[in-house]
Amino acid sequence: MDFNVLSILVWLPVAGAAVVVGLPRRRPELVVPVAFALSALTLGLAGFLVFQFDTADAGFQFVEKTAIWSDLGIDYHLGVDGISLFLVALTAFLFPIGIVASVNVADRRKEFMATLLLLEGALIGVFLALDLIVFFVFFEVLLVPMYFLIGLWGGERRLEAALKFFLYTALGSAFLLVGIIFLSAQANDQFGSPSFNYLELLDLDISRSAQYWLFGAFGIAFAIKVPLFPFHTWLPDAHTEAPTAGSVVLAGVLLKMGTYGFLRFNLNLFPEATVQLAGFLAALAVIGIIYGAAVAIVQPDLKRLVAYSSVSHLGFVVLGIFALTSQGISGGVIQMVNHGLTTGALFLLVGMIYERRHTRDIADYGGIQKVMPWFAGFFLFTAFASIGLPGLNGFVGEFLILLGSYSRHPALAVIAAFGVLLAAVYLLWAYERIFTGEPDKEENKALSDIGLREVGILVPIVALIVLLGVYPKPVLDRIEPAVERVLDRIEDQTGFDSPLRIGDIAVEHGEEASP
Amino acid sequence: MTEISYLAIGPVAALTLGVVVILLVEVSLKPRTGLLGLIAGASLLAGFAISVAQWVEASDDPVIRFRGMLALDPFAAFGAVVLTVLGAVALLVAWPLIVEQGRRAAEFIALVLLALSGMILMAASAHFIMLFLALEVASISLYVLAGFNRGSAASNEASVKYFLLGSFASAVFLYGVALSYAATGTLSINGTAEFLSDNLVLEPAALLAGIGLLIVGLGFKVSAAPFHMWAPDVYQGAASGVSGFMTAGAKVAGFAALARIAVTSYAPYISDWAPAVAVIAALSVLVGTLLAIAQSDIKRMLAYSSVAHAGFILTGLVAGIDGVPYIWFYVVTYAFQVLGAFAVVAVVSGPAGTRSPLTDYAGLARRAPVLAGSLALLMFSMAGIPLTAGFLSKLYVFREAVDAGYLWLVVLGAVTSVAGLFFYLRVIVLMYMKPQSEATASGGGETLVTDPIRVALTGVAVVTLAFGIVPGPLLDVVTNALPL
């Protein structure tokens, strides 16, 4: 590579934040275009990355490495593989949308946009970091902009929600930090020099009992982020109180740091503990699927409903990952992207209607379809994608996950399948209460349908939802080699035999099932 | 051994000379306060230059001078460098307070310089009696500074409390010295190490008791729990302009002294004292954090948070000599942070003020963005958020403690630092997310940031960010700042 595309991806938004802050006070109209242009540029780079990505290479690509502090073994070390590629792309995709969706933020708009850009840089950094300290730094630092995003621009109970979010996630990262330091101390014992380099730490010989503890230390941090039942209690508040762009980013990308962390670190670094504990985590995931969906059904608040649906959907991702099969993990990765798109779109839709009616209570609506037909159409479409209607993206991910987990945990897969059913219940029932019938409340009769800007926000998401649903092959082609590598590693290290490796079964819509 | 080394006492000589000149000029000329400040600045600059020269000299050839009294080693030189810079920043922070003192300004400046010279000696002492004298010079100056605001009952209370408990701690320290002497027959810090490594102490009870009492005495000076009771009252009662200096200076000098005797004199007994230090560290971290949560006054909150930080620094000490560089890293960056935080307090609640309720900080971001921004950065750093020096400090001491086998202490420290977020974030929430309260709105207008404060805060912010992102240069220095 002639230029350090990964570094630019991380630091362009960060520099962009400084640019936005530096814009002259007298020209407030410049803020949104500049912020949008910068995030669009980042998206362009991410697109470049996706197309330049070598599908034949299962390892890390575009690697950059510079020693920051060699005595301690801390390197500035970035790289991308099939697992992180689409999370980076998803991040870069959602931020321009979030920025356009927030043009109506009136209070301290400049700071708002700068905060969003900072968050974007840090998030991309999390997915690209190959040094555990660099990973931890991004992981922890992005709490600060997210905290301000909720605390400054959130809903009525924003302070409480922001604090809860910060403390919960920081508690998790405390254990993560201890785990990282312990790993580096192990490296010091075994290699003679401390190291935080992920690729070097893979060679560590960690005793089984230590693996359990480390799995726990890393796992708690990630389980809180996901959030995995029973660590999910921060999520509904944070999602509900965050401003629209904040909810989109929180649900769309932030939660994936947890599932990504499990996949990247727990599975690779602690394979023995992973094999032993996979059933337990899959069970927690299934509890989350059913519990999240059940609680979503009874929510009177539309935004909370969507928030709880995230608990359920992320449960699917975790279930897929801990199925420890090719289909399960690939499905998990693709489902992370799907959930980012569909839930992001749902939060955008909730934000649009909230801007008009200033209420999130489902009971305050009714018969909106008549006055906002376009809006209703987009909502229904997104709801179908979220439910997993065949032909839309949600189906691909959930199908792969259920297929992959059935071969390992048939009972859990069967129960999880009911989660899909419940998703139909909460989303379609909400649709019915909000949109169908006659508009019986005066306030609702005067609502204006979504305008060109709002349609413009939704169309790219809708396009991707369809594209991923009909033709997921390019995405799966890039994900699968990396997933195979994870499974190879687990099988090598533990003698565990993953059933139904890719090739045993054709899942790519019947096309070229590799032997 | 016998020869006199002007280099070894250079920084202290420069500062005491400055004190003498300031007091003489004051009585003879009755000058403007600005001139006194210039003299103080000149003596600090001279002290700084000499300590840099010490560093250069001692890096190659560390020696002990004045019949085994003073060490001229990188450890002492680095301590002097840090303390002179700290002193300069502290004077900048205290400047509005000094100007307010009128004719008593000279006394105030003289006391700060005297305290500094005591602190520099604490880092440089190679002999227990010398260390005790240095400790007393520093402590007595601080007792007076705490009560400098004679009209205020809180200030007087702070001073008396500090004096009584401080003298008690000094006595405990002295008793520890006596017991150590009884066991080893020497008062030399390095001599003790030689004796202990050459001889097997068959009945080490007196020695261990001595070490314990030394740790307790110095633990009091650095406000480690459970010897921290005085800290909140004293820091609150002292004028805001000087509380920062009292906290920062006492921490740097106290930890320098503690680190030196622990890793040189009693290095052979590390398996005996390290567990005790670990328990004190754990208690400090817990007590400091939990009590800080309950505070409604920012000075008390900072005081309890300094107890917690003392615990984190002690976490590095359990690793013995390996931890010393990181103790330095932590204590130096923390000293500047706490100085900066108190500088903000001094502006918001007035330089001579003793109370500073947290509610004063509501809406500060709109009234004084510079102050709010600096304080927010310092809070994030003290909380240990990455890209600040506070994060790296914690990372380094934790790593050393894990290497030394104190995983439980690190787990406790990491989890407690999360609880600490609660009160650091509360300040930020108040400044940025709460509207200004009625009471402060009417009394507002005094949040005027003067130039000295601005310079001091800029310096502190640069230190906090620069060493949080590029720790290399400072780490290079501290890894060499080891005692002889």
Describe the protein in words.
The complex is a heterodimer of chains A (515) and B (484). In chain A, helix 7 crosses helix 10 and helix 12 packs parallel to helix 18. Chain A has 515 residues and is mainly alpha-helical. Helix content of chain A is 73%, strand content 3%. Chain A has a two-stranded antiparallel sheet. Chain B is mainly α. Chain B has one domain. Chain B has a two-stranded antiparallel ribbon. The relative contact order of chain B is 0.10. The model of chain B has no long low-confidence stretch (mean pLDDT 90). The interface between A and B is medium-sized, with 35 and 28 residues.
Which labels suit this protein?
heterodimer; A: about 525 residues; mainly alpha; about 75% helix; globular; disordered C terminus; B: about 475 residues
Show the helix and strand layout.
The complex is a heterodimer of chains A (515) and B (484).
Chain A: H1 5-22, H2 31-52, E1 61-69, E2 74-80, H3 82-101, H4 109-128, H5 132-141, H6 143-153, H7 158-191, H8 198-201, H9 208-225, H10 234-241, H11 244-269, H12 271-297, H13 302-322, H14 326-357, H15 368-371, H16 373-387, H17 393-406, H18 410-435, H19 442-445, H20 452-470, H21 473-494
Antiparallel strand pairs in A: 1-2
Chain B: H1 6-29, H2 33-60, E1 63-65, E2 70-72, H3 74-100, H4 105-124, H5 128-146, H6 153-184, H7 189-198, H8 205-221, H9 230-237, H10 240-265, H11 270-293, H12 298-317, H13 324-348, H14 364-367, H15 369-383, H16 389-403, H17 407-433, H18 438-443, H19 451-469, H20 472-480
Antiparallel strand pairs in B: 1-2
